[in-house]
C-alpha cells in the first residue's frame, strides 16, 4: 500500500506532493495516515512537501507536515554522517542531501572531525531553501544552534541571513523565537545582513526588538551601513530611533555616510537625524564623508545648510572686484609665481581677462600657500572664472588629509586644465564621484609660456562656438 502511495507520477510528484500543492489538508491527513512518506521530493524541482506548503503560506499544512517529519524521524534508525561523505558537501546540491536522507543520515548529524558543524550548517551555507526545508521535513531540530559564518547561531539566524523567506516564515509559524540573541547578534541583524526587507518585516511582526541588532549597534545603524534604503524606510516607519548611538558614538547617519549611501543619508536627514551629532572621536557625519576624500558625497549635508571643508559657504569674501574672468591661474607653491605672472601677461595681451591673487604673487618661492589662503582665493575668483589653469604643483605638493584643496577647486570649477610645465603639455581634469579625480590624455603641447597662452585662448574660443 505504502509503495503505491509513494509512487511518482509523470509530473514527478507523489500523491502527497500533489495534495500539498493543491492545498488539500484532508487529503494530506488521509495520505499520511495511510503511511505516505513526507520526506520525498519532487523529482523535477527537488522541492519537498514542506517547502510547497510554506511557499503557499498555508499555516495548517505547514504545521501538519512539520509534525509528520518528526514522527517519520522517530520511527527510523538513523546514522551519523561519516567523514568521507562530508568532503565537498559545502558545495553540494539538494540532490546530495536527498541521497543522505534516503540512506538514513540523521538530519541533525555532525561529523567526527568537525563536531561543531552540523548538516544544517552546510544546508544553510548553500543558501538553497530546498536543502534547509528537506532537513526540517526530515525532523531536524528547529531550535538547534548551528555554525553560520563561523558563529554559533540559530537556524532562524541562518535562514534570515540567507534570505530564505519561505524558511523564515515556516520557522516562525513553528514557534522559532524572533527575539533570540546569540553571540550578541539578533535575528534582525542577520536579516539586515542578508538584505531582505520582507524578512525584516516578518521578524518585526513576530515581535523582534526594533532596537536590538549587534551589541550596541541598532538595526537602523546596520541597515544604514549596508545602504539598504528599503529596510531603513521600513524601520523608520516602525518607529526606529534615528538618534540612537553605538558604543563608539556612531549614529545611523554616520554609518550611512561611511557607506557613501546618499539616498539613505537624505532619508535619515528627512527623518530628523542630527547632522551635527559627533561620534566618539568628535567627528560628524559630514566629517566621515570628507575623511574618505569624497567631497562630492557631502553635498546632501550642504543642501541642509551644513558647511564642510569643501564648501564655500563658510568662507568670508571681502573682495570687492566686479565682473568675471576668462582665466583663473591657480597654483599653491611660490616657485610658480614667475610663470603665473608671465602667463597672465600673455593672456591679457590676447585680449582676455586673467586673475592672479596678489597674496599668491608675494608668496616666497620656497613656501606653500595655506589652506585658508587657497579657500580665500577660491571664494573670490573661482566661480567667476570660465577656466581654471592649474600648475603641476597640484600633483607634486603634499596635502592634509582633512582638506584636499585640489579636489576642492575642481568641484567648483566650470572648466579646468592641468599644465605640466616640466613636460610642455596640457591635460583635462575630470572629477569622478567615488574615484576622486584624474586627468585625461594630452590636449595640446607647447614650447614656451607665450605659446601656452595662445593655445589656451584658442581652446576657450573653440569651446564658445
CATH class of the domain at 1-141: Mainly Alpha
| Biggest pleated-sheet summary | 6 strands, mixed
Q: Based on CA inertia axes, which overall geometry fits?
A: elongated
Q: Write the CATH architecture name of the domain at 1-141.
A: Alpha Horseshoe
**% residues in beta strands:** 5-15%
Strand order of the largest sheet: 8-7-9-10-11-12
- Structural class comes to alpha/beta
Say what the CATH topology of the domain at 1-141 is: Serine Threonine Protein Phosphatase 5, Tetratricopeptide repeat
Strand element count = 12
Show unreliable segments. 396-401
Q: What is the distance, rounded to the nearest whole angstrom, between the alpha carbons of the first and last residues?
A: 90 Å
CATH superfamily of the domain at 1-141: Ankyrin repeat-containing domain
What's the average pLDDT? Answer: 85
Q: Specify the helix fraction band.
A: 40-55%
Radius of gyration: 33 Å
Task: Determine the number of helices (DSSP H or I, runs of at least 4 residues).
Answer: 25
Amino acid at each position: 500500500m505504502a509503495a503505491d502511495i509513494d509512487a511518482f507520477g509523470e509530473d514527478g510528484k507523489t500523491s502527497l506532493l500533489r495534495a500539498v500543492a493543491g492545498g488539500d489538508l484532508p487529503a494530506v491527513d488521509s495520505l499520511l495516515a495511510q503511511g505516505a512518506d513526507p520526506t520525498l521530493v519532487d523529482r523535477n524541482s527537488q522541492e519537498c512537501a514542506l517547502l510547497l506548503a510554506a511557499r503557499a503560506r498555508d499555516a495548517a499544512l505547514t504545521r501538519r507536515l512539520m509534525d509528520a517529519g518528526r514522527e517519520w524521524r522517530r520511527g527510523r534508525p538513523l546514522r551519523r554522517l561519516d567523514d568521507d561523505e562530508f568532503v565537498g558537501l559545502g558545495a553540494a546540491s539538494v540532490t546530495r542531501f536527498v541521497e543522505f536522507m534516503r540512506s538514513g543520515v540523521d538530519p541533525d548529524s555532525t561529523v567526527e572531525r568537525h563536531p561543531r558543524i552540523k548538516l544544517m550548517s552546510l544546508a544553510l551555507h548553500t543558501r538553497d531553501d530546498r536543502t534547509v526545508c528537506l532537513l526540517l521535513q526530515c525532523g531536524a531540530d528547529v531550535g538547534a544552534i548551528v555554525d553560520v559564518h563561523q558563529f554559533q547561531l540559530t537556524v532562524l539566524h541562518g535562514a534570515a541571513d540567507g534570505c530564505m523567506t519561505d524558511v523564515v516564515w515556516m520557522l516562525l509559524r513553528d514557534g522559532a523565537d524572533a527575539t533570540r540573541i546569540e553571540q550578541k547578534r539578533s535575528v534582525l541583524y542577520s536579516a539586515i545582513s542578508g538584505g531582505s526587507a520582507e524578512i525584516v518585516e516578518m521578524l518585526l511582526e513576530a515581535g523582534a526588538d526594533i532596537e536590538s541588532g549587534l551589541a550596541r549597534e541598532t538595526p537602523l545603524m546596520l541597515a544604514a551601513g549596508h545602504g539598504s534604503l528599503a529596510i531603513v524606510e521600513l524601520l523608520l516607519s516602525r518607529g526606529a530611533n534615528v538618534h540612537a548611538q553605538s558604543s563608539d558614538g556612531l549614529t545611523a547617519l554616520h554609518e550611512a555616510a561611511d557607506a557613501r549611501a546618499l539616498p539613505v543619508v537624505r532619508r535619515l536627514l528627512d527623518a530628523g537625524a542630527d547632522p551635527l551629532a559627533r561620534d566618539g572621536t568628535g567627528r560628524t557625519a559630514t566629517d566621515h564623508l570628507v575623511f574618505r576624500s569624497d567631497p562630492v558625497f557631502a553635498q546632501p549635508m550642504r543642501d541642509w545648510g551644513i558647511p564642510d571643508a569643501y564648501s564655500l559657504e563658510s568662507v568670508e569674501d571681502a573682495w570687492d572686484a566686479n565682473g568675471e574672468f576668462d582665466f583663473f591661474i591657480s597654483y599653491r607653491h611660490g616657485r610658480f609665481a614667475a610663470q603665473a605672472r608671465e602667463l597672465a601677461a600673455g593672456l591679457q595681451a590676447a585680449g582676455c581677462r586673467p586673475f592672479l591673487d596678489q597674496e599668491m604673487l608675494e608668496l616666497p618661492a620656497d613656501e606653500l600657500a595655506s589652506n585658508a589662503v587657497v579657500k580665500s582665493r577660491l571664494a573670490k575668483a573661482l566661480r567667476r572664472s570660465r577656466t581654471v589653469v592649474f600648475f603641476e604643483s597640484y600633483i607634486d605638493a603634499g596635502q592634509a588629509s582633512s582638506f584636499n584643496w585640489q579636489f576642492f577647486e575642481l568641484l567648483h570649477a566650470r572648466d579646468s586644465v592641468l599644465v605640466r610645465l616640466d613636460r610642455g603639455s596640457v591635460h583635462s581634469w575630470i572629477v569622478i564621484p567615488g574615484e576622486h579625480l584624474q586627468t585625461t590624455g594630452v590636449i595640446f603641447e607647447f614650447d614656451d609660456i607665450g605659446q601656452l597662452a595662445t593655445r589656451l585662448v584658442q581652446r576657450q574660443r573653440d569651446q564658445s562656438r
